[in-house]
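Quick start: what a row looks like.
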Amino acid sequence: MKLDKEAARRGVDEKIAKPLGVSFIQATWGIHDLINETMAAAAKTHIAEKGGNPKIVTIVAFGGAGPVHAYGLCKKLGAPRLLVPPNAGVGSALGFFTAPRAFDLLRSHKVPLGLRILMRLKRSFKELEAEAINILKERGHRERYQDRAIPGYAFYRSGIGDQYPARRKRLHKDEKGWNPATL
């Protein structure tokens, strides 16, 4: 992908810096800090769920732009140590080459949620599943095996998400089918 540095600069200037009355550098730093804050919030949620303590951990930077954000993330979490290995940015490339093949098929349905709608969505999932199986078969994968990810076999998981102002939640179908009580 060819990047257009001047167009990117104009976009930041026109859409962020000028409306906020700040310089280009302040706007880009704000974007950077917002990304760090978003990662820190996600990390804090994960830490709280697992019962960890960020004040005693070492943050390890890897993959893509991870090293660019690691110091800011470390400060926001209060972590005392940061480790940036040599060539840390290639971690995402390594993951890309070693991860199993995967892709997502999505369909949007803007409808009020109810039991009848769930049955219609269940049919849509079956159609998506058939489409996914055909795509994977064309690429040399075999049928799925007992709902588990096994190298060389197709594996799928379906789910629905609802979204409206001030709330976003992801729901997943369990092995027994849809459970309206989880809504």
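That is the whole record. The helical segments are 5-20, 24-50, 66-77, 91-98, 115-138. The longest strand covers residues 159-164.
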